[in-house]
C-alpha cells in the first residue's frame, strides 16, 4: 500500500508547525521521519490519518493507494485507520485502557472489523500474544495493562497494531520509553513482523541509530520542514544539513555509550 503526502501543512493557533511537507512511501517501503523534539514529526503522522488535535488546521494532500484522506469524513477515516493502517505509539500505558484485559484490547480491531464472536476473538488474541513474544499467552490475555512490564506493554501495542493485518504501519517513537536492551528486542520483533507482512512503514523517531535498524529511507524534519532526505546509510555517513549532523553525532554518542 502506498502513501503519498504532498504539500502537507498543519497550523495551530496561527503557527505553522508542519510546512509544505511532501514524501512518498511506496508499496512495502519503509520510511523514517526524524527530527529534534518539536520538529513536527508526530503532528505529521497524526494529521495524515485524521488524528490531529481539534484546533489544528490541516491542508495538503495525503493519498492512501490513491485515495485522498484529507477532508474525508471521520466515520470513513475511522474505518480506514482500523482496517488498513496500524499505529504504534510511544507510551503504551496511556494508549491502553486500564480497565480492559490485554486480550480484549488485542482483539478489539478484529471485533470491530470482522465482527468476530468473543470466543474466536480470544483465540486470535492468544495467537497474536504468542507472535509478539509475550510470555504464557494463554494467561497474559486475561491480565490488565498495569500487570505487565513496559516492554510487555509495547508488545501488546504491536499486537494491536498488527492483528488486523494492516498494509500500512505508522510507528511513533515505539521504543523511546524502553531501556536499551528492551528497545533492541522490540525493534527486532517489530522489524521481523513488518517484513513478514510486507507492510509499508512510516517510523518516527529522534534517534538515527534506531532508525538505521528499521528503515532504508529517511526524511529529516526541522521546524516542520523537510531539510534533508535520502538513504539512511548515506545520511549517516555524509549528513549535509546542520540539524542532520547533530542527529548523527547524537546517534554516534548513544552507540558508543551502549557498547
Ligand atoms: N495541541 C497542540 N497545541 C499547540 N501546539 C502544539 C500541539 N501539538 C503540538 N504542538 C506544537 O507543534 C510542534 C510540533 O509538535 P510535534 O509533537 O509534532 O513534534 P515532534 O517532532 O513529534 O516532537 P517530539 O519528538 O517531542 O514528540 C511543537 O512545537 C509543538 O509544541
From TrEMBL:
Domain ABC transporter: from-to ranges: 3-248
Its membrane topology: Peripheral membrane protein
InterPro entries, alphabetized: AAA+_ATPase (IPR003593), ABC_Ni/Peptide_Import (IPR050388), ABC_transporter-like_ATP-bd (IPR003439), ABC_transporter-like_CS (IPR017871), P-loop_NTPase (IPR027417)
Keyword Ribosomal protein: no
Keyword Calcium in annotation: no
Superkingdom of origin: Bacteria
CDD domains reported in the protein's UniProt record: ABC_NikE_OppD_transporters (cd03257)
Cell compartment(s), UniProt: Cell membrane
Coarse class of the protein's main subcellular location: membrane
Signal peptide span: none
Pfam family, one: ABC_tran
Keywords: ATP-binding, Cell inner membrane, Cell membrane, Membrane, Nucleotide-binding, Translocase, Transport
Family assignment from sequence similarity: Belongs to the ABC transporter superfamily.
Protein name in UniProt: ABC transporter domain-containing protein
